[in-house]
Amino acid sequence: MRELVDEVRAWLAWAEESGLQNLAPPGRQAQQVETVKLPLLEAVRTELGECTRCKLHKTRTNIVFGVGNPEARLMFVGEAPGEDEDLQGYPFVGKAGQLLTKMIEAMGLRREDVYICNTVKCRPPNNRNPEPEELLACEPFLKGQLGAVKPEAIVTLGKFAAQALLREQTPITRLRGQWREYQGIPVMPTFHPAYLLRSPAEKSKVWEDLKQVMKRLRLPIPKGGAS
Ligand code: URA
């Protein structure tokens, strides 16, 4: 196992340096990839280390790497940790996180079934938007997480995560509900749960987006939605 983790770590370092697009370790068979997802994720976390690659490290309490099932079929990507997340070290644990949990449960899943992370792993001061160099410094680790978990679909939460991943400035009102792609993985942009807390009338749109995801993953579609 140690050898494998070292191999993956070396590969990730090389992938980061060379800006590699394909995150599957070269030469590995599909069956083998299935059995190494947890060590792969751990290798990405180890590679991240006590990161000082951007200035966010100066003000963070904890790195908020990600949480959930290393074999998840579905990954949720948010913007950046907020205060609660920074203090606890886990993504989406505040009020918006509680609503995200309800959304996941409305899909007939549990939080432990999916994988949840953010575009950047450290809290920006005063919850400002992450800056381009912060995103750039953190992107190899998001790619590493995607390469390890290999979800069948990604749901981006809010304008920032969608625009950062898709590298376009299209307003979230136009992006949401439309399938896109990142690193060859289908992406469904939807509204951020923090926005839904302020505008609960928009929940029905998010439910439509999540139903598209369930359809794509061939999950049974429960009646109702996140309330
Ligand atoms: N908002 C986000 O985008 N991510 C979190 O982890 C929490 C709130």
Instruction: Give the low-pLDDT segments.
Output: 18-34
Mean pLDDT: 89
- Computed CA radius of gyration, to the nearest angstrom: 17 Å
**Count of the separate structural domains:** 1
Please indicate the percent range of residues in DSSP E strands (runs of 2 or more).
Answer: 5-15%
Fold-level CATH name: Uracil-DNA Glycosylase, subunit E
CATH class: Alpha Beta
How far do the termini sit from each other?
A: 44 Å
Order of helices and strands: HHHEEHHEHEHHEEHH
Question: Which molecules are bound in this entry?
Answer: uracil
Say which CATH homologous superfamily is assigned.
Uracil-DNA glycosylase-like domain
Structural class designation = alpha/beta
Task: Describe the fold and architecture.
The structure is a single chain. With 227 residues, the chain is an alpha/beta fold. It has a single domain (2-216), classed as Uracil-DNA Glycosylase, subunit E, CATH 3.40.470. The chain is 46% helix and 11% strand. It contains 10 helices and 6 strands, in the order αααββααβαβααββαα. It has helices at residues 2-18, 30-35, 37-48, 83-88, 95-106, 132-149, 158-166, 172-175, 193-198, 203-216; strands at 67-68, 74-78, 115-118, 153-157, 180-182, 185-190. Strands 1-3-2-4-6-5 form a 6-stranded mixed sheet, with helices on both faces. A hairpin with a 2-residue loop joins strand 5 (180-182) and strand 6 (185-190). The site of uracil (URA) has 11 residues, from helix 5.
